[in-house]
Amino acid sequence: MNDKDNMENKSQQSLDAVAQVVASYAGRADVTQDDILTLAQRLIPVFASTPAQSASQAPAAVAAVATEKPIVKPAIALEKAVTDDKVYCLCCGKGFTMLKRHLKAEHGLTEDEYRTMFGLSEDFPLVAPKYSERKAAYAKKVGLGKYSRDADADQGAVAR
Ligand SMILES: [Zn+2]
């Protein structure tokens, strides 16, 4: 069956891509063997779910993607990817207040896929800290602050 061939071809391509990514990741000084294993395990399903058309119609293009656009090597160093008022896209190095929409629009990635690709932890910020802080501070100000004052006022009202 053709379908079966395609699937096998595709999964072989996926494994090749994973191997490339893992190899470049393994070159980093801060990476342990466990990290590498974990990354490989997490990457395989990500690559396996990429559209089959590129694998069956243009194998050369797939190879080019794997070599010319290193998937795990960030466009900007992780420690520089987050500033107070901006987060930088590790795919293209552009800065944003929040990455979610950009990732989807420019790179067709979900936040989860993005985290997986660059080995980011769950709490790696994808929203500028200043922005989320401001939001948190604002929420506190209008929410918690108001709440305690209102609670006092209510108690006063009830007592009367
Ligand atoms: Zn980008």
How would you explain this protein's 3D organization?
The chain has 160 residues and is an all-alpha fold. The chain has a domain of 71 residues. The chain is 65% helix and 2% strand. It is built from 7 helices and 2 strands, in the order ααααββααα. The protein has a two-stranded antiparallel sheet. A hairpin with a 6-residue loop joins strand 1 and strand 2. Helix 1 packs antiparallel against helix 2 and helix 1 runs parallel beside helix 4. The protein is elongated. About 11% of the residues have low confidence. The structure holds zinc ion. Zinc ion binds next to helix 5.
The small-molecule ligands in this entry are: zinc ion
* End-to-end distance: 83 Å
Contiguous helical run count: 7
How can the largest sheet be summarized?
2 strands, antiparallel
The value of Rg in angstroms is 22 Å
Structural class: mainly alpha
Shape, please?
A: elongated
Content of β-strand: under 5%
Q: How do the strands of the widest beta sheet line up side by side?
A: 1-2
Averaging pLDDT over every residue, what do you get?
Answer: 74
Assembly type of the chains comes to: single chain
Helix content: 55-70%
Order of helices and strands: HHHHEEHHH
Topology of helices and strands:
Blueprint: H1 2-26, H2 33-48, H3 52-57, H4 59-68, E1 87-88, E2 95-96, H5 100-107, H6 111-118, H7 129-159
Antiparallel strand pairs: 1-2
Helix pairs in contact: 1-2, 1-4
Bound molecules: zinc ion.
Residues 89, 91-92, 94, 102, 106-107 line the site of zinc ion.
Keywords, separated by commas or semicolons:
160 residues, 7 helices, binds zinc ion, mainly alpha
